Amino acid sequence: xxxxxxxxxxxxxxxxxxxxxxxxxxxxxxxxxxxxxxxxxxxxxxxxxxxxxxxxxxxxxxxxxxxxxxxxxxxxxx
Length: 78
Known about the structure:
The protein is mainly beta. It has one helix and ten strands, in the order βββββαβββββ.
């Protein structure tokens, strides 16, 4: 979950504060709180994975989870 999510519609760059997320190191799933996540949707969209399950969020139908490869995560607590 993010407290705020900002997306630059021109460049695809995004940033958000992490409230609750899960980090998968290839072996273990680790809950993460605090910190921030940032990256570029234009470079990550080819490797992004979305769940088939969706939910209505702010008048938009969105996947309930997304896996982002190459995102920058800073200041997170494990």
